[in-house]
Design a protein that fits this description.
The structure is a single chain. With 462 residues, the chain is α+β, with helices and mostly antiparallel strands. It has two domains: 12-65 and 198-461, no CATH class; 74-191, no CATH class. The protein has nine helices and 21 strands. It has helices spanning 18-23, 44-50, 212-216, 229-251, 268-275, 289-301, 314-324, 342-347, 370-373, and strands at 54-57, 61-67, 74-83, 100-104, 125-128, 134-141, 149-154, 171-176, 194-200, 202-211, 277-280, 307-312, 350-355, 358-364, 387-391, 394-396, 403-405, 407-412, 420-425, 438-451, 458-461. The longest helix has 23 residues, at 229-251.
Length: 462
């Protein structure tokens, strides 16, 4: 690979001077008549903003509420069932139709640390997941935190609730209070819990400074009919700023070290890794149809969407194409979530494939590959053979009822009506701010990413 690093430098003193411009041989006629952009732009968060998935908030911290877990309840048993006198005969042998007492695991309580609460209640019918036997809860004892007990009897008198039919570690799936009987009384209320997830915005900044003599030199490059290096430098600074915002929103983490200087923000990938799903595949083999089936199950089991953006690095995309080329014909996307037309889909590099009733919109995202972004090839690279799947759907805030997209770019207004600010300072600014003959072009924004229902997102890694 040709030498490509460093791809940029900070000149001594932090400003682009005449000597620095001359040293880089930017003056004519040594150069080709146009600067070449060696690497194309890649920005997934800009696509989200184009789709309207953004919001302005009035504080650096923002959050939302999500239902905690599923709507229906399940508990897990620990230890062997024990015969209970009230629903059995006098001996200690568990016989057909008799009731037993079981203890539920600490993880089936809330909070898990103290275990004061649990979802078990008298009158609930449960199915033993391992055997399919239906039982009814007839008594509950919540006297010991983290070790609540329940007495259950089989609905059918032929079943024996011994350690074979009700083994330790069994999951009991709540099927509802369906055997209430005549003139029934109320059953205890089950209250769904919610979690509040928060993130913070972080300040992202890029500056470009150029001195007077560097601006005066005639360069062998023209932007808008003017031959000034500042135009190219400013354009590069804008691109660098937008790329840095993309990196922050995808890879950023909350800064716990005060020496870092700001609170930081949790980007999409760290959020999925902590609260989402993971599909691990064998990168020495192929990413084949069975991998897609496994991902589809993760999506189905976690309330995912019928359509997903699947961003992947160059190596993973090659493996997917090798495996599926002969089976499926990838076509241009036809869906409003990326602009509503084939032209827009093609522009942003999406292809589509439908498997298990789920449409995957495939996009090669070269931001995962250091070779594409930096021109280096690390021996070990976390994001090689890597991908993420983002659901394209709206969700409802569990507390406020507001509709929120699965992904949303969040901004603080850096000044009234502005999410991003670009301004000039120095003696050569349109409105001079000093007596120094220089020009500083600055870019800044305060941004973060809201990830709603992260359990519906998937990380794909080797």
């Amino acid at each position: 690979m040709p030498v490509q690093q460093p791809g940029g430098v900070v000149p001594q003193g932090g400003a682009v001077s005449q000597a620095f411009v001359t040293a880089l041989s930017l003056l004519k006629p040594q150069n080709y008549d146009q600067f070449i952009e060696a690497y194309g732009a890649q920005s997934y968060t800009q696509i989200l903003e184009m789709l309207g998935n953004k919001q302005v908030v009035q504080a650096t911290e923002f959050g939302h509420y999500e239902s905690r877990g599923k709507r229906h309840f399940a508990v897990q048993t620990t230890g062997a069932p024990a015969e209970t006198a009230a629903y059995s005969d006098a001996d200690t042998t568990i016989e057909a139709g008799e009731g037993v007492t079981i203890t539920i695991t600490a993880a089936s309580h809330f909070p898990n640390t103290s275990g004061a609460e649990s979802p078990i209640r008298v009158g609930e019918v449960y199915e033993i997941a391992a055997t399919g036997i239906l039982v009814k809860c007839v008594a509950v004892n919540k006297g010991t935190a983290g070790a609540h007990t329940m007495t259950v009897v089989p609905l059918q008198s032929t079943y024996v609730l011994n350690s074979t039919n009700l083994p330790s570690g069994s999951w009991l799936l709540g099927r509802g209070a369906s055997l209430s009987g005549e003139a029934s009384t109320k059953v205890d209320s089950q209250t769904e819990l919610v979690n509040r997830y928060t993130n913070t915005t972080t300040m992202i900044r890029e500056d470009f400074e150029i001195t007077d003599k560097a601006m005066m030199q005639e360069l062998w490059v023209s932007f808008d009919g003017e031959a000034k290096y500042t135009r190219k430098g400013a354009k590069e600074a804008v691109n660098r700023f937008l790329n840095n915002k993309e990196f922050t929103l995808l890879f950023g983490v909350q800064a716990t070290n005060s020496r870092a200087g700001d609170n930081g923000t949790s980007g999409l990938i760290p959020t999925i890794e902590s609260r989402g799903q993971t599909h691990q595949w064998n990168s020495d083999s192929v990413f084949d149809i069975e991998d897609f089936h496994a991902i589809s199950r993760l999506v189905d089991f976690n309330g995912g969407a019928s359509e997903y953006h699947f961003l992947m690095d160059s190596y993973l995309r090659s493996k997917i194409d090798d495996a599926l080329f002969a089976k499926y014909q990838n076509g241009a996307i036809q869906w409003a979530a990326v602009g509503g037309s084939n032209d827009v889909a093609v522009k942003y590099g999406f292809d589509s494939i439908k498997i298990d009733g789920i449409t995957y919109h495939l996009k090669k995202f070269l931001g995962f590959n250091a070779e594409a972004v930096y021109g280096v090839a690390p021996a070990t690279e976390k994001y090689k053979n890597f991908g993420i799947l983002a659901p394209m759907k709206s969700n409802r805030d569990a507390r406020t009822g507001d509709n929120i997209p699965s992904l949303q770019v969040v901004y603080n207004e850096i000044e009234p009506g502005k999410e991003l600010k670009v301004w000039e300072t120095g003696g050569l600014a349109k409105v001079p701010t000093s007596d120094k003959l220089n020009l500083v072009i600055s870019h800044a924004c305060s941004a973060g990413l809201r990830t709603f229902a992260a359990n519906q997102f998937v990380v794909v890694k080797p």
